[in-house]
Amino acid sequence: MMPVTGGTINMMEYLLQGSVLDQSLESLLHRLRGLCDNMEPETFLDHEMVFLLKGQQASPFVLRARRSMDKSGMPWHLRYLGQPEIGDKNRHALVRNCVDIATSDNLTDFLVEMGFRMDHEFVAKGHVFRKGIMKIVVYKIFRILMPGNTESIEPLSLSYLVELNVVAPAGQDIVSDDMRNFAEQLKPLVHLEKIDPKRLM
C-alpha cells in the first residue's frame, strides 16, 4: 500500500554519495558506460539557486531552483528535500522526502515575493547515467564569482561529486539493497556512502 498525502504519493529519495578526483574521471565514466543501460549518458550544465525562508523554527525552510543553461526552452525546476531519515541502520542509503516540479520562468521572482531570500548559487556541469530506476550523476560544482553572472565561474574543487539516487514511493527500502550492490561494482574508483549532511556542517 502506497502512503498517500493530499492526493499525491509520498515520494522519497534514496541517496549514496562520493567523490572522484579529476584525474580519475575518465576511468569512472568508462566503468559507468559498461555497467549502465546501453545508451550514451546525458550531459548537463545547470544553474542552481538555493532559497531560504526564515521563520520561528530553528532551521530555515529551504527550496532549490534549477534551470538548464545548455538546453533552451527547458522549464525551471523547483525542488524540496526533507530532513534525512538516518535512524534506520539497516538501510544502505540515506532517505529523505523529495518533491520536484517543473515551473514557469518567473520562479525566482515568485519565491522572492513569497519572502524567500537567495542564500547561494552555483553552476553544476556533468553527466547523467541510468541503470533501471537508478540515476547516477557525476558532476563538478563551479563557484559564481559575480552574483547573477553564470559566465564568470571557477571550479570549487579538484574533484567531481558522484551521486547514486532513486526516487520511489515511501516504504520501498528494497531499492537501497540494489543501490549498495551497484555501488560495490564502482569500487575502488569511487566509494559511495550514506552521508549525513549534518555531519558536514
From TrEMBL:
Domain of life: Eukaryota
One Pfam family cited in the UniProt record for this chain: Med18
A single GO cellular-component term on record: mediator complex
Oligomeric and partner information: Component of the Mediator complex.
PANTHER family referenced in this protein's UniProt entry, alphabetically: MEDIATOR OF RNA POLYMERASE II TRANSCRIPTION SUBUNIT 18, MEDIATOR OF RNA POLYMERASE II TRANSCRIPTION, SUBUNIT 18
Family, similarity comment: Belongs to the Mediator complex subunit 18 family.
Cited function: Component of the Mediator complex, a coactivator involved in the regulated transcription of nearly all RNA polymerase II-dependent genes. Mediator functions as a bridge to convey information from gene-specific regulatory proteins to the basal RNA polymerase II transcription machinery. Mediator is recruited to promoters by direct interactions with regulatory proteins and serves as a scaffold for the assembly of a functional preinitiation complex with RNA polymerase II and the general transcription factors.
Record-given protein name: Mediator of RNA polymerase II transcription subunit 18
Source species: Rhagologus leucostigma
